[in-house]
Specification:
- With 500 residues, the chain is α/β, with parallel strands linked by helices.
- The chain folds into 2 domains: 287 residues, FAD/NAD(P)-binding domain (3-Layer(bba) Sandwich); 187 residues, FAD/NAD(P)-binding domain (3-Layer(bba) Sandwich).
- Helices cover 28% and strands 21% of the residues.
- It has 13 helices and 23 strands.
- The strands form 6 sheets. Strands 1, 2, 3, 4, 5, 6, 17, 18 and 21 form a 9-stranded mixed beta sheet that branches. Strands 7-16-8-9-12 form a 5-stranded parallel beta sheet. Strands 13-14-15 form a 3-stranded antiparallel beta sheet, with no helix packed on it.
- A hairpin with a 3-residue loop joins strand 19 and strand 20.
- Helix 5 packs across helix 10.
- The N terminus is likely disordered.
Length: 500
């Protein structure tokens, strides 16, 4: 076992061995645990999570109105029917996950307030040694495991992205990022400026508008939105016919995927027409004459960034009522009273919310080493977007950016990993490692995601830190559920993977 440096204050508590150690008890971690328990019941596993409870994003995000921006028929698990409205609040999602933990008896496998900080692979022992900190006490614990299943998501839960603007120290009010929301923040009858234009802004503005004196959205550039009632007419009809819930869930998933595929194809083939339709859809909720061509007319093509869904058009209803307004401009600097834009308009505020995005965190920010040599994942090539060349017995669940919800990929990654584990058993192998083949000598190394296809700010800021992909299978991360849902089950598990 590798020796690991301890904190000056003391010892590392040895916590024993599990066959599979899952990092994260959110959607992906629970999905992985379900699949292991159901399809490989002889394997021992444990989930470690830094938060004080399950749910990941849905526990760490507590800002007003927090809700999904994907429908729960696809964001929910394929094996657990969703019975609520398509777009759900964080509380509803946590209640759904709570049911899953009870129904599948998974609580016994989870340990909370445990932050993994280091993982060391020993080729001699053919296992990982994981060092984790118990956040409640500061004590360090060591676990060993044959396989690490990374399910902690892709961004820094502890710190969101806030640009450095000139004069921020001069502002006399409070600046807060949605990821660092305080429960005691009082915004009643106060002027609020929300800087940002994405899904978080679309969520937080209508939630605050009813109590705040006024909410102003300050955006550098607009975002595409789809506004529609928060209901699924097909699902409601099927529910009225007393169709079994699992049938309804499966039909709803297929219908949502089909609709999404048609939308994306239309955006790619006819971007100008789709742009006009999306802007017109927003205009339906706003007063006649409202200048959507300034405030809701993005510079990029539809689906180069994710299109946010606005349930019941609540964001636009707030704007129409006068409770909220939109300013499209650049920030010149902060003042004592608020923000001065480049056009010379001063937006006065008691509270400024920097809904300016995420900081991406590669594999949870954990320090990985192989026999003492630190792993730089940006120099690895990803096997199907989930395992990495030269790194044994490790996978990272990374969901879809654009073509489907996160959970759709979590499901098929879990299914593929079960196949890989069974294949290892058939071979009598303890170690699986992706390795470039002899025929890959002329492989073209490409970024994790093509910026021409998908280019949100949080990805562009950190793309250089991410693993790479290649120009051929199995080194392509397709970012496409219809393709991967077919290619994963058909994958030759001896192509690109080595066993010993």
């Amino acid at each position: 076992m590798n020796e690991v440096a301890t904190k000056p204050s003391g010892e590392i508590h040895q916590m024993g061995h599990v066959d599979v150690l899952i990092v994260g008890a959110g959607i992906s971690g629970i999905d992985a645990a379900y699949h292991l328990q159901k399809y490989l019941p002889g394997r021992s596993f444990k989930l470690l999570d830094a938060l004080d409870g399950f749910g990941g994003t849905w526990r760490s995000h507590t800002y007003p109105g927090v809700r999904s921006d994907s429908d729960l028929f696809t964001f929910g698990f394929g094996w657990k029917p969703w019975s609520g409205p398509p777009i759900a609040t964080a509380a509803e999602i946590l209640a759904y996950l709570d049911e899953v933990l009870d129904e599948q008896d998974l609580r016994q496998h989870i340990q909370y307030e445990t932050k993994v900080t280091k993982a060391s692979w020993s080729s001699a022992d053919q296992k990982w040694t994981i060092i984790a900190e118990r956040l409640s006490s500061g004590e360090l614990e060591a676990y060993t495991t044959d396989f690490m299943w990374m399910c902690q998501g892709y961004y820094n839960h502890e710190k969101g992205y806030t640009p450095e603007w000139s004069g921020m120290e001069d502002f006399k009010g409070e600046i807060i990022h949605p990821q660092a929301w305080r429960e005691d923040l009082d915004y009643k009858d106060k002027n609020v400026v929300v800087i940002g234009s994405g899904a978080t802004t679309a969520t937080i503005v209508p939630a605050m508008a009813g109590e705040a004196k006024h909410v102003t959205v300050l955006q550098r550039s607009p975002t595409y939105f789809i506004a529609a009632p928060n209901r699924d007419d097909l699902v409601n009809q099927l529910r009225g016919l007393d169709i079994p819930p699992d049938w309804i869930h499966d039909i709803a998933r297929k219908n949502v995927l089909h609709t999404s595929a048609v939308l994306i194809e239309s955006c790619e083939k006819e971007p100008d027409r789709m742009k006009a339709e999306l802007i017109a859809g927003v205009q339906e909720y706003l007063p006649e004459g409202y200048d959507t061509h300034i405030h809701f007319n993005p510079k990029y093509k539809p689906w180069q960034q994710r299109i946010a869904f606005v349930p019941d058009g609540d964001l636009f209803k707030c704007i129409a009522s006068g409770e909220a307004s939109v300013v499209t401009d650049h920030i010149d600097h902060f003042t004592e009273k608020g923000v001065l834009t480049e056009s010379g308009q001063e937006l006065e505020a008691d509270i400024i919310v920097s809904a300016t995005g995420l900081n991406l965190l590669v594999l949870g920010g954990i320090e990985f080493d192989l026999d003492g040599e630190v792993v730089d994942f940006s120099k690895t090539v990803a096997y199907r977007g989930l395992m990495f060349t030269g790194v044994p017995n490790l996978c990272w669940v990374f969901g879809y950016f654009r073509s489907a919800s996160w959970t759709m990929r979590s499901d098929i990654v879990s299914e593929l990993m079960i196949r890989i584990f069974r294949h290892m058993s058939e071979k009598g192998a303890k170690v699986v490692t992706p390795e470039l083949r002899e025929t890959d000598g002329d492989i073209k190394i490409l970024p994790w995601m093509d910026p021409a296809v998908f280019n949100p700010g949080y990805l562009q800021r950190s793309l250089h830190l991410m693993p790479k992909q290649g120009d051929r299978h199995p080194w392509i991360f397709e970012h496409d559920y219809p393709l991967e849902s077919k290619s994963f089950p058909e994958a030759d598990l001896d192509d690109g993977l080595t066993y010993r």
